[in-house]
Design brief:
single chain, 495 residues, DNA Cyclobutane Dipyrimidine Photolyase, subunit A, domain 3, 3 domains, 5 strands, binds flavin-adenine dinucleotide
Length: 495
């Protein structure tokens, strides 16, 4: 494949070395180990991002591996990265195709010395890495940059990663330490290409017109937006000091950091988060919330390194422990779940938000994963695939490990109980399910009770649950207790 004419070397540049830097989920210039290596080890850098059509394929479940929200967010991150390179005097080559077919050709055409890339842990990505390595051999170098702790600093090899996040955290904190930030280059010298490519449009990746949703991403794309949010969440608003008490909410943007989409596309370095929070603790305030935010970022590391340890076992039906399982494969119920039409408002509100915006709170993820696997008893891998398709912050280790744990390890989460506990006044539910706005408190928690108490049919546009679980009985009883006397009277009169 011919991508470009060989770069014309300006007079006197003939003997200059050139590194191709293949961007993957490291879409930033700050604290970037690959870029640091490229800029400091070579005279010029040719940064490239490759849109790989395999990532956008339609799955047998009827949705794409990477859905439309994720495509748009990624594309916007690439546009932002391209602009950042241009501001530094360089540029970013954008190509559509398979990395293993493109990079070797590009290396030869550009007479480059090496291809540099961030190392990944998941098998799809490492398979691609292996075929590039087979073609390029010593001209291909993988560099670690995904996590807070550097893999070489951990006091254990991948095979010895502790089984619990607590022991991982304690030992890593004590024995590894977080490295200092790498400087952002002032200037980036790139070769002079005749064509820097262009961002693909949706139909080049197979999207049909009806898949092109009009959606509002909860956070803007790119590195600058990520760094602004980090500043906002810490020094500007001091929200970080309240994090522990707000993190279980679902409504709005400020109850949690919202760093995830940027962290996982690599627009934000986890070390940047760490060092900013540490500076905040020193200069402003240190409390349980500032501690907790770092604790969560270390969870992310725990899943990345555990994935490196267990490999593809994290994708097995029985999870990493290979538990006996008998998952159902009821596509109709699964589709109701994906669309947020289960008839259980707390679950549906979260599922609709995911579908409409590409984001869902942690409370929502815990509840909807539990609902799919413990109430519908549907194969958790279907749910994980739906999250993979939809989540702007999708990260292979965090997603599949959290699902794995939720389906096979963690206690059941009762969605009726959680609804009253986390959204008693229904602000979140009603923000996502406006069709329930006509129902007074507490009926929007359990709309199927409406007819019994008011004689009014439940909202027609909102579905009845497929079934009511016996184990929700006590929580439904608690909702009944909240029903005002006037409704009790109405039922008594009718009786
Ligand atoms: C079923 C399920 C699937 C999930 N899938 C993903 C996923 O694909 N990508 C993802 O980043 N997180 C995932 N999570 C974890 C968590 O829900 C999100 O990280 C969090 O909601 C993102 O919002 P935030 O950035 O505001 O998080 P905050 O609460 O502000 O936390 C700060 C950061 O800590 C990390 N973090 C927090 N909780 C977790 C966790 N449980 N596991 C790993 N990292 C965590 C994230 O990087 C996050 O950005 C999943 C959780 C569940 C239960």
């Amino acid at each position: 494949m011919r991508l470009n004419k060989p770069a014309k070397s300006p007079a006197g540049y003939d003997n200059m070395s050139l590194a191709i830097y293949w961007h993957r989920d490291d879409l930033r210039l700050h604290d970037n180990p690959c870029l640091h290596r490229a800029v400091n080890g070579y005279d010029r850098v040719l940064p490239i991002f490759i849109f790989d059509p395999r990532q956008f394929e339609m799955l047998p479940l009827g949705f794409r591996k990477t859905g439309y929200h994720r495509f748009i967010f990624l594309k916007d991150c690439i546009a932002a990265l391209q602009q950042s390179y241009q501001e530094k005097g360089g540029n970013l080559l954008v190509v559509l195709g398979r990395p293993e077919e493109i990079l070797a050709d590009l290396l030869r055409e550009q007479q480059a010395d090496i291809v540099l890339a961030q190392a990944e842990v998941a098998s799809e990505e490492t398979t691609v890495e292996r075929s590039i390595a087979a073609a390029l051999q010593t001209e291909f170098e993988l560099i670690w940059g995904k996590s807070l702790y550097h893999r070489d600093d951990l006091p254990f090899g991948f095979d010895e990663i502790p089984a619990t996040s607590k022991s991982f955290r304690i030992r890593a904190q004590k024995e590894a330490g977080v490295r200092e930030l790498l400087p952002t280059p002032d200037r980036i010298d790139c070769p002079e290409l005749t064509d820097w490519g262009k961002l693909p449009v949706a139909d080049e990746l197979g999207f049909r017109r009806e898949e092109a949703l009009d959606f509002q991403a909860p956070v803007p794309a790119g590195e600058k937006a990520a760094l602004e949010r980090l500043h906002y969440y810490t020094f500007e608003t001091r929200l970080v000091e309240k994090y522990k008490w707000t993190r279980n909410k679902s409504l709005g943007i400020d109850y949690s950091s919202k760093f995830s989409a940027w962290l996982n596309r690599g627009c934000l370095s986890p070390r940047q988060v760490y060092h900013t929070v540490k500076r905040y603790e020193k200069e402003v305030k240190r409390n349980i919330s500032t501690w907790w935010l770092i604790f969560e970022v270390v969870w992310r590391d725990f899943f990345i390194f555990s994935h490196a340890k267990y490999g593809d076992k994290i994708f097995r039906a029985g999870g990493i422990k290979n538990r006996e399982t008998d998952w159902k494969h009821d596509k109709e119920l699964f589709d109701r779940w994906c669309r947020g039409e289960t008839g259980i408002p707390f679950a549906d509100a979260h599922l609709r938000e995911l579908w409409e915006t590409g984001f869902m709170s942690n409370r929502g993820r815990v509840n909807t994963a539990s609902f799919l696997t413990r109430d519908y008893e549907i194969d958790w891998r279907w749910g994980a695939a739906w999250f993979e398709s939809q989540l702007l912050d999708y990260e292979v280790s965090a997603n599949w490990f959290n699902w794995n744990t939720q389906a096979t390890e963690i206690y059941y989460t009762n969605p009726v109980h959680q609804s009253m506990k986390y959204d008693k006044n229904g602000e979140y539910i009603l923000s996502q399910l406006p069709e329930l706005a006509a129902l007074p408190f507490p009926f929007f928690h359990a709309p199927w009770l409406t007819q019994e108490f008011t004689g009014v049919e439940p909202v027609k546009s909102y579905p009845q649950p497929a079934f009511i679980q016996k184990k929700w009985g006590r929580s439904i009883g608690n909702i009944r207790k909240e029903i005002p006397e006037e409704y009790e009277d109405l039922v008594a009169k009718k009786g």
